[in-house]
Amino acid sequence: MKIQFDETCGQFHLWNDKISYIMRIMENGQLEHLYFGKKVSPDRDYSYLSERGHRDMQACPIPENPKFSPEHIRQEYPCYGHGDMRMPAFEIERENGSKIVDFVYVSHCIYPGKKAIDPLPAIYCETQEEALTLEIRLRDEQIKTDLVLFYTIFASVPAISRHAEFVCQTEEKLSLETAMSFGIDLPDMNYEMVDLAGTWNRERHVRRHALEFGIQSVYSLRGSLSSHQFNPFLALARPGVDENAGEVIGMSLLYSGDFLARTEVDNYGVTRVTMGIHPQQFSWPLSMGEKFVTPEAVIVYSDQGLGEMSRIYHQLYRNRLARGVWRDRPRPILINNWEATYFNFDEEKLLSIAKKASEIGIELFVLDDGWFGHRNDSRSSLGDWYVNEKKLPGGIKGLAQKINDLGMSFGIWIEPEMISEDSDLYRAHPDWVLGDSRRTLSKARNQYVLDFSRPEVVDAVYRQLADTFQGVPIAYIKWDHNRSMSEVYSAGGGREYQGTVRHRFILGMYSLYARLRAEFPEILFESCASGGARFDPGMLYYAPQTWCSDDTDAIERIRIQYGTSMVYPLSSIGSHVSAVPNEQLKRVTPLRTRAAVAYFGTFGYELDLTKLSREELEEMKQEIAFMKQYRSLIQPGKLFRLISPFENDGNLASWEVVSQDGQKALVAYFRILQRPESPYTRLRLEGLEEDAVYVCREVKNCCCIEPDAEEWYRSGRELANIGLIMSDVSAGCAGVAADVQGDFLARMFLLEKTES
Ligand code: GLA
Q: Which of residues 283, 298, 320 is at a domain's end?
C-alpha cells in the first residue's frame, strides 16, 4: 500500500495489492481523474490518460488553450463555473449571488492511518498500518475558502474512502448549496447500475438496469431517514457480471438522512457518479473560521463480481465501522413482545412469555413499544420517557430484575426523536415540534418529529432517557423512528437556518447516540425505523445491528435479507421468527423455514410463546441450541450468495456462509413452491478449499444434526464444480424423504473439513 506523488507530472497514485486510484493536477490547478480499477504499475506517468481534443462548437475551453474544455475532461471533484456543463459535486453561493468558483491545488499531505470525521460516522483504523490517508488542499483565493479532499486507501481491502471539507476564511458570507461526498468520472458507460429499492415491508430488493445517457439516481428526501424506498448505495457492474466474476464498483454512503446517489452519462459516454447529502433543501451558510464536513463514502472495487464486493463491505463495516463491546460478540437470541401483544400487555403477560422464553434457552427479553407515559396505542406519550406504572407496577427496574431472575437479560424500545401531541413534553414545549405552527402539519402514525436540529431539545431527551435508565439493568435498546419528515421548519432559527435543519437533525440524532453509548457502553443498540428505513452504514457506527423489516414473513424475508446482504454484514441484520399465519401476509410457512431464514442474521423470536404447542416449543429449543452453536460461524462468516430470488422465476434461493477459518460452512436452500416435473438440480458451492475433503450432513428440520445423520464425503473441487444434489421427488428421484417436500421449503447443510 502506498500513496505516491510525482511532482514532475503532478500525479497522485494510491495503490494497494489490488487497486490503483490515480489523479493529477491539471494546467488550471484543478484535479483531473485518471484511473480507478485493478492495480497498475507504480512509478509510471499516466498523464497520457488525459484526453484533450477539439470536441464541439459549443465547448467552453479556457482562453489559453482551445483544447482544454472542462466538460470534456474527467474531473475529480467537479465544480460550477468552468465550462463543465454536467452536474457539479459542490456549489458555493457568494454574497452577490455568484456561484462561480475556482479552487486550485495548494498543498497535500500523506499520513498513516485515518482521522475521525467529527461529528460524523466514519471508518476507523486500529493500527496505523491499516491505511494511508491523502489530504489535498485546494483554495479559491477570491473567496478565501479552502476545499480539502480526503482519500484513505486500506491495506487489506480493495477500497477507498472519500469525503470533503470546506473551510471558510473570508468575511464575506458564503452559502454552501451542494456538498457531495465525492465525484468520480469513469471513462465509459458500459455498466449496469445495481441498487436496492423497495418500500415499507419490502425493503432493499435488488434492481439492475443498464446505464443510459443522462441522469439516473436513487435518493432520500425524507429528512431523517435513508428510507425504505432507496438505500445510500449503488454499484456499477459490467454487463454479465454475476456473483463470482466480473468488474464491479460499489459506492456506499455513511449517512442516515437525505442522500443522492447519481449517475450522469454524457454524450461521449463518460459516466460521472456523485454521492452525498441531497442538495435539494440543503443550504449551509459559512462564515469566517467555519468548516463544513461531508459524510464519508466508501468505494469498493471487485473483479470477482458482486459477491466479492459484498464481502469487502461486510469486512469493513463489521470490523471497522461497528464499534464497542458488541462488535465481536455473538448476538444474544432474543424474544420481542411486539407481534405477541402490541400495546396490550401488563407485567403478568410479559412474564408469562418470558418464563417460556427462558425455558427454551432465549437469552434476552425485549420490551417493545407501549411501556411509557400512558401509551396504549399510537396516539400518545412519545416524549414522556417514564414508565407506565399501571402496566408495570414495579417500574422498568422491577420488571428487568424479574427477567434477570429468569436467567435472561433485559432490553427496551425507545423512539427518542418523536413527540405525540398528547404528551407532557408537547404541552410544555409545543415549539419543539419540527414544523410551521401557522400551517397544517401532517401527522404520520399519529406523531410529530422533534426538532433535533436544536441542541436543547436533544439535551432534554438525553436527560430523560439517562435518568430513566440509570441503575436499571438494561442490556439492549431498540431505537425506533416511525415517520418521515414532511413540513420541515424549525423555530430554532431564521431564514438562513432553515436550509441546515435536516442535516443538523441528523447530527443531533448522532450526538444523542454518542452520549448514550458513552454513558451505557455495555448496551447493545439495534436501530430501527418502521422496520428497515434506516438500514445504512451511518447507523452501523452507533448501533451494530438494525431491524431489517417489519415484514417477518419468511418468504418475503428471503428477498429482503438477500438484498440487504449486498452491502451489510449478517451480524447487522435483525431477523426474527414470527407466528403463522404471518401478521403481514397471512402466509403459513413451516417453523423450520422461518428459523432457517432468521438464522442468517442476529436471530430471535417475535410471537406469543404461551400460545404454542409443546412440540413447537421443543422444536424452538432445538433451533436455539443450533443457533448458539453456529452463530459464531454465521455472524462473522464469509457470505456467498448462490441462487438469487430476484432472478429466473424467483422460486429458488440459496446462500452459504463459510467460517472465517475455512473449517466449516452452512448452506441454506429455499424452494418457494414445489413444482411438478421439476428439473434435476445441483447447488454449486463457493469459498471452499478445492483440495480439502468435507463431510456434509443435512441439518434435520433445519435445527439439529442427528448423531446418526447420513454423511457424504466430498472434495471442495466436487462441491464447487458438481455441487450438492437438490433434486426432489417431482424431478423423478425416488426415495426423497417426505420432510423435504412441499411448498415454502428450507433445507440446510453443514460441511466440515476433514482429514479423511
Ligand atoms: C415499528 C417497528 C416495530 C415495532 C413498532 C412499535 O413499526 O419497526 O418493530 O417496534 O414500531 O410501535
A: 320
Catalytic sites, residue numbers: 480, 550
| Pairing assessment for the beta strands 545-547 and 573-574 based on DSSP bridges | parallel
CA of 118 to the centre of ligand 1 (A): 31
Q: Which atom of ligand 1 is nearest to the CA of 368?
A: 10
Structural domain including 655 reads 639-754
The amino acid at residue 204 is R
Position 8 in a domain:
yes
Domain end marker among 320, 339, 364: 320
384 within a domain of the structure (yes/no) = no
Least confident of 268-272, 407-411, 422-426, 729-733: 729-733
| CA-to-CA dists, residue 639 to 300, 312, 341, angstroms | 17, 10, 35
Q: Which atom in ligand 1 lies closest to the alpha carbon of residue 378?
A: 12
Q: What is the CA(481)–ligand 1 centre distance, in A?
A: 8
pLDDT one-digit tens code per residue, 468-490:
999 999 999 999 999 999 999 99
pLDDT at 58: 82
Count: domains in the chain: 2
Q: Whose CA is nearest to atom 11 of ligand 1?
A: 530
Instruction: Look at the block and give the residue holding cell 454524450.
Output: 267
User: What is the number of other CB atoms lying within 10 angstroms of the CB of residue 219?
Assistant: 18
Q: What average pLDDT does range 237-255 have in this prediction?
A: 98
| CA 531 to ligand 1 centroid distance, Å | 7
Cα 22 to its chain centre, rounded Å, is: 28
Residues with CB under 6 A from ligand 1: 338, 368-369, 413, 480, 482, 528, 530-531, 547, 550
Q: For residue 562, is it within any domain? A: no
pLDDT in the model for residue 587: 98
CATH number where 184 lies: 2.70.98.60
Cell of 490: 424549525
pTM of the predicted model as reported, rounded to 2 decimal places: 0.98
Indicate whether 304 belongs to any domain. yes
Q: Give me the pLDDT at residue 63, please.
A: 86
